[in-house]
Amino acid sequence: MPPSAKSIREDLARAKAAYGKNEELRTVQLVALALRAFVSVKLPGTDRITIEGQLREAFGNLSKLPRVLKYAPNGVPYAKGQEHKLAAVLAGLVQKVEEDITRESLAAMRERKLRIDHAIIKGSKLLAEGNLLEAQRNFRAAVADYVDEKGLFPLLAGKLIDAGHFKAALEYVKRAVEEAPDNARAYDFLLTAAGKAEEWQQAERILLDAAGKGINHPLLDQAMARVQARRGNWKEALAAARRAVAADARLTDAAQVLAAAQKHLAAPPSPAA
Predict the structure, then answer these.
(1) CA-to-CA distance for 230 and 226, rounded, in angstroms?
(2) Helix (H, G, I), strand (E, B) or coil at 165
(3) N- to C-terminal Cα separation, the chain
(4) Which of 52, 73, 189, 257 pairs with 156 at a CA distance of 20 to 30 A?
(5) Taking a C-beta distance cutoff of 8 angstroms, is the pair 236, 256 a contact?
(6) Rounded Cα–Cα distance for residues 46 and 230 (Å)
(7) pLDDT digits (tens, 9 = 90+) for 210-253
(8) CB count, 10 Å around CB of 45?
(9) Phi/psi of residue 93, each to 5°?
(10) Are 227 and 207 in contact (CB under 8 A)?
């Protein structure tokens, strides 16, 4: 739709709200958008007067923003009749503010990843020294900085498993399953840690929690089938194995559990002693 007096007023109202929330980029973007629309249409005198008043206020707000003052130390005053020139000035400001925020975001991301790396390195050193408590403190600090590094949880789980801390590893196995349910390593670590620590009930809970969060993956069903088989819950093992094999016939572990479950459930009950 072409711009109208209404749409321009609405953009300026949104710019005022963004200014109130200290959203600098959005404020500049909306004022620039409104000004471009203003110079592209011919409006009745009453509408122009109303919008000019809004623009004057919007430019006054712009001139208080730190990111704007960085590039326009004296602010950007509104000048009636100079809207075309001001539109070009605002277009340049939008680009500069966007570049500023991008640079800051990249710097923050690099700093965050460095903190994760340092915490893992320190935690690994402490783990090698046998100090599980302090190693865990550092590993959890790395997790606190997690955003999208999905390999973090299998990495930490693997380190703890290699060090023989199988029960402690389950904390990170749980997150590995939740964050990357398509990663086969997460389920391998789950079964290894649960088997070594004899924590099959906790392994079942981890998989049920993941399923309860809407995670649906044949690898999860295959792991569930193996966990239930290990616990002797053959009906549940059969159901999970069937789901896994139906979704992906290449899942050989699920196929093996399926065959074993069918055999157990078909066998006649043992006579009472």
Answers:
(1) 6
(2) coil
(3) 84
(4) 257
(5) no
(6) 79
(7) 999 999 999 999 999 999 999 999 999 999 999 999 999 999 99
(8) 7
(9) -65, -40
(10) yes
> Could you give the CA distance from residue 108 to residue 146 in angstroms, rounded to a whole number?
13
Q: DSSP readout, 91-128?
A: HHHHHHHHHHHHHHHHHHHHHHHHHHHHHHHHHHHHHH
Q: Annotate 90-121 with b (16+ C-beta within 10 A) or e (fewer).
A: beebbebbeeeeeeeeeeeeeeeeeebeebbe
Q: Which of 32, 37, 28 is nearest to 8 (CA)?
A: 37
Q: How many helices (H) and strands (E) does the chain have?
A: 13, 0
- The answer, yes or no, to whether residue 272 has pLDDT greater than 90, is no
Give the CA distances from residue 65 to residues 26, 59, 71, 92, in Å, rounded to whole numbers and listed in that order: 12, 10, 10, 15
DSSP 147: S
Return the DSSP state at 166.
H
Residue with tokens 């069937």, as numbered in its chain: 242
Q: Per residue in 65-76, pLDDT tens?
A: 998 999 999 899
- Given a contact cutoff of 8 angstroms between Cβ atoms, the answer to whether 55 and 17 are in contact is no
| Residue 46 · residue 59 · CB < 8 Å | no
In the block, tokens 């050989």 appear at 252
